[in-house]
Amino acid sequence: MAHETTDHSPSDSVALITYWTHSTNVTNTQLTHLQLDNYGPWTVTPEPRREMDLQTLQSRLFADVAQFVGGYGGYVFPTRYDNLVAVTNGLDRRAHESLQESLDNRYPITVSLGIGTGRRPADALDAASTHLHEAGSAQDGDRTQVFGGDPLAESVRSDEDLEVAHFDVDDATDVYTDRLNEYDAYLAIERGYSALARYLREEHGALAFFAGGDNVVAVCPALSDRDYHDAIDHVRETASVDLKVGVGAGYTAQEAGMKAKHALEHCREEQVPVVRDEGGERPKLQIASLDP
């Protein structure tokens, strides 16, 4: 059982602060791996294309995918830009087909999709990527617009299918942005992000993505408060970067992510490293406690 105590919050927007030692949610993640078909050879045929033209194409395609998936409450992350990872709880097969058709109509390249599901996001992505691998190489000119895998059935969905953790760097502006040149600040943030992403992937099967500025968004299985404290401690010890995190659960990535954002704001206000937001009309915030 979770250890629980309660205090009234001084904030009008927060009804109750609850101190927990762990979470008991069970997650059910749906991920989609989007892969540009035969993209490498296309960039040099009939001759190498201008780099900024390629960067513009990639950024516009990502923006279109993000807008489409976001309309269903999903999240998208660019990873390597010729490959995208989307959290697509809430998107059925027809929505995926519509996305694929829209991109085909608007771009000189096609996109293949693989869908995977699992309790751990890493397992879901493994399944999604396997559908693409089994259909052929990413640089196979004959492999185009693959669609593999099945979305989650509505009958197995729940209001807490997803757990999203939103991390940011403590005092990033004072410590990095206002003191270092932009490249050195970037390297410092990237050092912390890389340490966090590798740790969460290897220890928990969670997937963390850089989200700009000093922000990292992680799609996680149901982790305990101790797990989040341990992740923050690991990054501090190995990368010398201090983090805080807000955590939320929800039916879609958007719902869970907004709860995580609210919780992160409370981290800043209360100067605590880990906060959960259980949502509701007046959010009930859980400040992670490691007291026995």
From TrEMBL:
Pfam families: GCH_III. The keyword Aminoacyl-tRNA synthetase does not apply. The lineage of its organism: Archaea, Methanobacteriati, Methanobacteriota, Stenosarchaea group, Halobacteria. It comes from Halogranum amylolyticum. The keyword Zinc does not apply. This is GTP cyclohydrolase III. It is an enzyme of class 3 (hydrolase). Its EC number is 3.5.4.29. The gene is gch3. GO terms for molecular function: GTP binding; GTP cyclohydrolase IIa activity.
